[in-house]
Amino acid sequence: MKRILILTLIVAVIISAAAVMANNSFNYSEDEIAENSLHAFFGEKDQAVKYVGTGKNHYGEYYQFSTECGGNYYVDAGTYTVSRAEFPFEWSETNTVKISLEDAEQNAYNFIKEKSSLSGIDKSDLIDSSLLNHGSYKEYKFVFRDVKDGVLLFNSAIVSVNPYSGDIISYVSVDKNLEISLAPEISEEKAIEIATNQFDNIRIVKKDAKIIVDYPDGTEQKLLWLVVIEGEPDNYILRGGSVIIDALSGEVYLKSSFK
Fold first, then answer.
1. Is the residue at 179 inside a domain?
2. What pTM was computed for the model?
3. What is the DSSP string of 144-166?
4. 3-state secondary structure of 243
5. Is the pLDDT confidence value at 79 over 60?
6. Is residue 241 domain-resident?
7. Which of 49, 90, 162, 168 could form a disulfide with 65 if both were Cys (CB 3.0 to 4.6 A apart)?
8. Source organism's superkingdom (predicted)?
9. Cα separation of 228 and 226, whole Å?
10. Does residue 230 contact residue 240 with C-beta atoms inside 8 Å?
11. Is the pLDDT confidence value at 122 over 70?
């Protein structure tokens, strides 16, 4: 009986090791593993890609690839998932709006559920949707952000949709584990007071405050208040702006005035 138990444990260890090694059973280099992940991302629309190199931002390191038709793709070096995609498109075809906002939103959501590793994102996590006019082209933009206990987490996806064809123009996703407590020490009222004090002689007509998780210094995850203050116009100039405040200490990380 003891020998059977030992053999069972050995088999279990071998199976576990095989699972870990499966992705690299052919001794692929790291950039080759990233490229294989990109081909899986393309699926039936697979195409030849060119390895451009590596890079780093405050989300982490990535592998960059391009295609002959003008696409650019970025694979996260930690998870080997496609964190950013810029698909080729004809600018002239985007100036005519044929797809409704609702249909474009559904396309964006379907793309996230099919291609993204953000399993927690749902339709209710859409926090912004708009049709943007850049002059030479238009695009629908949709921002989805994961929410927990009323806090907007860092995990998010931004999808741009072609208003003429409904195709995806670009996609960016961020998927980070939660590393901090979601309990603020600065109240909403105090955060609004701090934000209001950033603008001289402002008469508030509208205010909004949300708790978010972000990386204000680019390295450390923090719990923050995002406060938007709108004041009465002065000589037809809109007063106020947005302020990002540490939800534990009250430190102001960023002030962005309306222009």
1. no
2. 0.74
3. EEEEETTEEEEEEEEEEE-TTT-
4. strand
5. yes
6. yes
7. 49
8. Archaea
9. 7
10. yes
11. yes
